[in-house]
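*** Query protein ***
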Amino acid sequence: MIAALLVASLLITDPVSPPTNADGMPPEVASPVARGVELLLDMQEGTTLRGGPSEWPYQGVYRVKGKIPIGYRVGGTGICGEALLRAPGLADDTRRQAAIARAIDFVCQSSGHDLMTPDYDGGYDVRGWGYCYGLRFLLAARELDVVADDQTEAVEAAIDFYTAALQQIEIPQIGGWTYSRRDIDAPCAVSPFMTAPCVQTLHEAAAQGETVDRDVLIRALDALEMSRADASGNVAYSARSKNTGDGESIPGAMGRMTALEAVLARSGRGSEAGTQRSVEAFLEHWDELEKRRRKTGTHKAPYGVAPYYFFYAHFHAADAVELLPEPQRTALRDRINERLFSVQEANGAWNDRVFERSANYGTAMAMLALMKPWLNAPASMPEVPAVPAADAPPAAP
């Protein structure tokens, strides 16, 4: 593996409509986001740090010794923490600031947990989700300058740990990531719906000057392209050879399609047509996704869609829209938001599972999807630094 230090790349802010309030969000977005902030603050639980609860554990069916695994605890906390960071009004909200500080401590401390080490044998394991979303949260906290002085050293160390650990557990030879593998050192099928956000997180890390191996990103992008059928745009749930499918399973693939196309576009490998096709597939087949929301079980026929996929798909659809030409965005945003609001709970939360606790994840993902047009665009594929003149190879004769 040839290591390459990646320099920071600028985050580009998309143009937005004239602001209708101090934070630029119209009331129809700002109000449900503000309600989401209240709900997330009330849902913080778990480990007591700085005098209060510090976690938003994601609750699924998977357990380790009967308990929610640390990867889900860190990943869920990272997602909820980022939603609170990105929502308007943070500077004047001391309760939220305190909750975020406790979450930062938890994510940093969890890097030392026995089941968060990247040195493990394999099997079904979700620590990679913790690396991905824990890192994304800490990067956002640093970007927005909310890290307290007494947290700086721990945050820097945790960012270094999560950045390195995520790269260490890439799939050998094939590239990318998955959460289920027999042998951590052997090639296996890639999971596109996990790989796409992992690539984006490493883009963000590189944009902030962290050490990221460009070859890891290239292998991951190759794996994503392998998982996509060129003719139909369908993306396999998992793949280790080129997908040549005819698109029959697109109704169950629309979430990972939008995630994949957005990441490829930001990596110089996508296309407007591919991104447009993925968003249209999400809107066209949304009813198939809705059939699995708030249901038991995981990968049910005919499309193998699990309930946790619901808000994941909305988030990535909202992200992909921002890569399309400006004239198309407003109508597409409205259509995605209409679907989000159609499944909002009576108390203002969102929940895609039968577990009450899962409302923390659903609410945070919905908030981030709603806020997309007013957030800085995610980082793009960084460039390899130029070779310093003194070390440059001699010119060809």
The first helix runs from residue 27 to 43. The radius of gyration is 20 Å. DSSP finds 13 helices and four strands in the chain.
